[in-house]
Design goal:
By secondary structure, this protein is of the alpha/beta class. The chain is built from 8 helices and 12 strands.
Length: about 325
């Protein structure tokens, strides 16, 4: 069985300490206790060693009623404030440096990605600026004009009319000036410009399709399906049908004739020598050589009527026929 540890004993006070503490205890007697008895001093025996005096190691604490020196307090406060501000500033600066270092360390990938994007954007911008600068420079000047699609017109005449565009950079070609020059050619219905770097300008034209001659006071005028006058001659041109239209080129009968003539196959249109129409519903064609008539009727179903006429002419040639009536393409009448 384990024995309990003995309680620590209070230290034995020295004689001087006991003498000082006795008057203090005597000055504060308890209410219910009797005044303490002061022990008589005991003379030490010759063979006992006297107690050594206690020397305090720390500086004595000033008493509450002691007043500090104001000059010393002010000097100590100023020194403490000066040292404290410098230390705080150094600590704050070190903290900022450490924070910036941490930010750089954790954002190195983001900064690298941003630098890559910035470099790519700058490269694209420089490339675009260089391309534009080269395109608008004399390095891409027009040196050749090619005309495509000219059949009735002379391509050389059209190219010569556009010679004012030679030497200009391809992006700076004046389309308004080109349009003004091409208006002088009535046979041109539409046109398109195409740039072929570094030095070629291509002009693609679509010529008007003449449908016949209209007799006027000046002679015989060649017109297309829109009624545009292409040329005028004193006598009718060979191989071109003469149009006899009631109301002229501004009438509905002329519009119907134009639609019919454009729907005819080339081999049939080459045989037509005359066209007459008083209304949009009584278009009649005349085939030269045999004086065979083709009763067309209105311009409706012109493609279907042209196909039916082509088949019946192959079966029964115009030399043996007086007229073909294709006004009803499903029931062609041959006389």
């Amino acid at each position: 069985m384990r024995r309990p540890s003995p309680l620590p004993q209070p230290p034995v006070a020295s004689r001087g300490t006991a003498e000082k503490a006795a008057p203090a205890r005597a000055a504060r007697p308890a209410r219910d206790e009797a005044p303490a008895r002061v022990p008589e001093p005991v003379e030490p025996t010759p063979d006992e060693n006297p107690t050594a005096p206690v020397i305090p190691l720390a500086s004595p604490t000033p008493l509450p009623d002691a007043k500090p020196d104001p000059d010393a307090t002010t000097a100590e406060s100023a020194d403490a404030a000066q040292v404290g501000f410098r230390e705080v500033w150094k600590a704050a600066r070190a903290r900022r440096k450490a924070l910036r270092a941490e930010i750089r360390r954790f954002t190195v990938r983001q900064r690298r990605r941003r630098a890559v994007w910035f470099g790519a954007a700058a490269s694209v911008l420089l490339l675009a600026l260089g391309t534009l600068g080269a395109a608008y420079s004399p390095l891409f000047g027009v040196e050749k004009i090619s005309v495509v699609g000219a059949q009735q017109l002379a391509a050389g005449d059209v190219a010569a009319a556009l010679s004012g565009q030679l030497g200009k950079p391809l992006p700076l070609v004046d389309e308004s000036a080109i349009k003004a020059e091409l208006v002088a050619f009535p046979l041109i219905e539409t046109y398109a410009l195409e740039a072929r770097p570094p030095h070629e300008l291509v002009v693609r034209i679509v010529e008007r399709t003449p449908i016949g001659l209209i007799e006027t006071r000046a002679g015989y005028t060649l017109v297309d399906a829109a009624g545009v006058a292409l040329s005028t001659t004193a006598t009718p041109s060979a191989g071109t049908p003469v149009l006899t239209i009631t109301g002229g080129v501004d009438s509905d009968a002329f519009a119907a004739v134009g639609q019919v003539m454009r729907s005819l196959p080339e081999e049939i249109r080459a045989q037509v020598t005359a066209v007459t129409a008083s209304t949009p519903d009584d278009v009649t064609l005349e085939l030269g050589g045999t004086n065979t008539q083709v009763v067309w009727g209105s311009a409706e179903d012109s493609a279907k009527k042209a196909l039916a006429l082509n088949k019946i002419m192959a079966a029964r040639p115009p030399a043996d026929v007086f007229s073909y009536d294709v006004s009803s393409p499903d029931a062609v009448v041959v006389r």
